[in-house]
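Feature request, filed as a ticket because there's no other form

It would be nice if the structure record came with a short human-readable summary line next to the tokens. Right now we just get the raw output. Example of a typical job, pasted below so the devs can see what we mean:
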Amino acid sequence: MIRRTNQHSVSSSQEWCDGAKLVRPHPEGAGEFAANYRDRGQRPGSVDEKRPSEPLTKTELDVRFRLRMLWSIVGTAAVRKPSQSRAIRTRASLVAAAEAEFTEHGYAQTTARSIAERAGVATGTFYQYFGDKDVMLRELADVRQQRIAREAVEVLGSDVRDVKGRELLAAVRARMTRIVRMVMDYHRENPGLHAVLTERRHADSDLDQLTSLGEQALVHQVAQLLERWGFAGDTTATAFVLFGMVEGSVHAHVLGTSVVDDERFTSALVDALIRVALPDLDRS
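Raw output as currently delivered:
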């Protein structure tokens, strides 16, 4: 679930930008957006001279601020950023080993030494790339969060502005069904690591902030979709409710004790999501 983080006003967001000319963010997923900037050596919020400048809304400023904060957590996570192929392979083997260790042994029993041993390298090599196991865990959380955000936006991002009435309802239902199934798969693919991340979020403020920023950016994307679908109410609050419905319900169904099979669960959850997201169409 989303946890509360410090809120930032427009003035503080403008101050954070150091007076730079602002442009609207790229219309892609939040995780993908942050990842693309990081891969290109840019920080979210930097000026892109190839895009026409337009005034940013308060919501866009707040999202830009959250993405910048996300960079500050993840961008400095590694002690060493590898550039040579051998170093890249070594780092990747450490990340894979860490995922396996956290999954099989939990947080307490996983150490830098056990990760290094599984990866076939010396413990000192681990510390060349990661400060400690908490930094490594944040890396794993970031990768998972970027992937789910990218896939969610790919599913929901298809333009349905020219579709009306029952056709719109059918299109949104199909997208929401895919989202629910995707989130179920996401929870099932590695329940051990998911449990560790959930547990450590309450103890590691940086992990909590990293997760919260990604969730808030995803909620912003859902709010934009609601606007395109013609939702007449509070799009941000409703997007938050929709996110909570999916995350909480899927968590209980997959990681708890399910009371119905997947098909019944998915159908019921999608029906509930439709009633919230498209109340007028759902009653028509």
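Something like this underneath would help us a lot:
The longest helix spans residues 85-109.
Residues 1-61, 67-77 have pLDDT under 50 and may be disordered.
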